[in-house]
C-alpha cells in the first residue's frame, strides 16, 4: 500500500464501488457515490500514512487498520463500517463519528490520576443518590452513526449491564489532556448536549480549573453539586483538585 515500508508485511485488500457516472468523484463533476475500503494487517504496530486519493489521508497505530474513504452517500458501505466498529474492541478504545474512527488523546499520569479520583469520589454517594460513575464506556449519540467515549459518565441506577450506553447520563466529565484541541472538545460537548446530558464538565488537572459547557461555550465554574431532578449530587471541584494535589505531593515525597 502507499506509504508502507518495505520491511513490513501486510495483507492488503481493496474494494471499489462506484457508479458509471462519477469516476472522478464530486470534484470532477460526478455524483459522488464512491467508496473505498482499504484494509491492512500489520506484522507490528507501526504508524503508517496512506493516501490513495490526494483529497483523503488516514493514519493509525493499531495492528488491524481499516480505513474508509467516501465520496458522498453509500448506504451499504457505511452500514458495514459501523457494524465493524460495534463488533470490535480496541486498545485504547476509539470513537466512531459519521463513518470515521476517531482516536482520543493518550492519557498521561495526571489525567489518569484525576479520573481515578473522580470514580472513587462518586462511589461514596452511589447508594444515597442512586448513581454510578463509569470510566470510558461507549455512549451512543446517534444510532449507527456516532459513538463517543467520555472519561467519566455518571448514570442513574439501577441501569442494565450494556456494552454501549444508550441511556442519557446524568453527567459527563472529560479530563483535559495536552493533546485535546478546542475544536474537538466543543464538537464532543455539542454531541453530549444534543443527547440531553444535564451536566457536561471539563476538568483540567494542570491548571486545576473546571468548566461547564453551556449554550455552546465553556464557562469556568467552581462546582459544589450537580442538580438532578429534585436533588443535588455532591460534586466539589475544589475538593477534587485538592485531592489531586495531595496525591501528587505524596508521590513526589517518595522520590
Give an overview in words.
This protein has helices at residues 75-87, 109-123, 126-129, 182-195, 237-254; strands at 10-17, 34-42, 48-50, 58-60, 64-71, 95-97, 100-102, 131-135, 139-142, 146-148, 152-156, 171-175, 199-204, 209-214, 217-220, 225-228, 231-234. The strands form five sheets. A six-stranded mixed sheet has the order 8-11-12-13-14-15, with helices on both faces. The protein is built from five helices and 17 strands. The radius of gyration is 21 Å and the shape is globular. Mean pLDDT is 78; it is low at 1-75. Helix 2 (109-123) crosses helix 5 (237-254). A hairpin with a 2-residue loop joins strand 16 (225-228) and strand 17 (231-234). It has 255 residues and is of the alpha+beta class. Helix content is 25%, strand content 33%.
Beta fraction of the residues? 25-35%
* Low confidence ranges: 1-75
Mean pLDDT: 78
Following the backbone from N to C, one meets helices and strands in this order, namely EEEEEHEEHHEEEEEHEEEEEH
Could you give the order of strands across the largest sheet? Answer: 8-11-12-13-14-15
Number of helices: 5
Class based on secondary structure composition and strand pairing: alpha+beta
Shape: globular
Radius of gyration: 21 Å
- Termini gap: 48 Å
Helix content: 25-40%
User: What's the total number of strands?
Assistant: 17
Amino acid at each position: 500500500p502507499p506509504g508502507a515500508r518495505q520491511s513490513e508485511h501486510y495483507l492488503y485488500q481493496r474494494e471499489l464501488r462506484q457508479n458509471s457516472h462519477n469516476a472522478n468523484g464530486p470534484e470532477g463533476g460526478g455524483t459522488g457515490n464512491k467508496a473505498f475500503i482499504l484494509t491492512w494487517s500489520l506484522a507490528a504496530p507501526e504508524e503508517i500514512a496512506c493516501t490513495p486519493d490526494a483529497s483523503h489521508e488516514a493514519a493509525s497505530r493499531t495492528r488491524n487498520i481499516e480505513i474508509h474513504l467516501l465520496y458522498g452517500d453509500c448506504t451499504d458501505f457505511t452500514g458495514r463500517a459501523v457494524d465493524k466498529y460495534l463488533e470490535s474492541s480496541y486498545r485504547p478504545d476509539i470513537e466512531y463519528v459519521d463513518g470515521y474512527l476517531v482516536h482520543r488523546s493518550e492519557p498521561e499520569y495526571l489525567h489518569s490520576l484525576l479520573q481515578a479520583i473522580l470514580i472513587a469520589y462518586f462511589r461514596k454517594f452511589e447508594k444515597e443518590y442512586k448513581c454510578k460513575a463509569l470510566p470510558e464506556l461507549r455512549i451512543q449519540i446517534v444510532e449507527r452513526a456516532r459513538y463517543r467515549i467520555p472519561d467519566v459518565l455518571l448514570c442513574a441506577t439501577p441501569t442494565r449491564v450494556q456494552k454501549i450506553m444508550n441511556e442519557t447520563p446524568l453527567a459527563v466529565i472529560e479530563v483535559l489532556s495536552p493533546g485535546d484541541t478546542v475544536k474537538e472538545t466543543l464538537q464532543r460537548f455539542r454531541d453530549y448536549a444534543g443527547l440531553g446530558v444535564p451536566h457536561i464538565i471539563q476538568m483540567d488537572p494542570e491548571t486545576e480549573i473546571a468548566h461547564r459547557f453551556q449554550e455552546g461555550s465553556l464557562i469556568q465554574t467552581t462546582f459544589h453539586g450537580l442538580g438532578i431532578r429534585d436533588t443535588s449530587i455532591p460534586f466539589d471541584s475544589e475538593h477534587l483538585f485538592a485531592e489531586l494535589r495531595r496525591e501528587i505531593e505524596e508521590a513526589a515525597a517518595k522520590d
